[in-house]
Design brief:
The protein is of the alpha/beta class. 36% of the residues lie in helices and 20% in strands. It contains 4 helices and 7 strands; from the N terminus they run E-E-H-E-H-E-H-E-H-E-E. The strands form 2 sheets. It has a 5-stranded mixed sheet with strand order 1-2-3-4-5. The protein has a two-stranded antiparallel sheet with strand order 6-7.
Length: 139
Amino acid sequence: MTTPRPTGVPILRLGDVLVTGLVDELDDSSALAFADELTERIAADAARGVLIDISRLELIDSFVARSLMELTGMARLLGARVIVAGMRPPVAITLVELGLRLTGVETALNAEKGLEALGWQRSTDSARPAEGGPRGTLR
């Protein structure tokens, strides 16, 4: 098996959850490379969940919509749950106007809600120092 070429899209690991995001500059070939890279990471890291933040996407086309559906299906086959978070209203409107359905794709209002759905909890322990910002734990 060949290693997919890095796409420049960061994929972060939080316990057994991978967190990543899409930006406008992702063209069709980069989207395919991103899907390959992410599925490889799901398998290598034994991830049980993936959060894809799309809050920076201004537009979505049928290719990106289909790629998200296919990526979700591949991740499920590898044992991971995918949540797409942060969809902007214009993106949702475009999907509806184009008649595109993200069949099988779970969505969340924002990344924090998506992480909560994947078992991430923001720490409420005020006794801990706040160095480095908010902390969370996985259930």
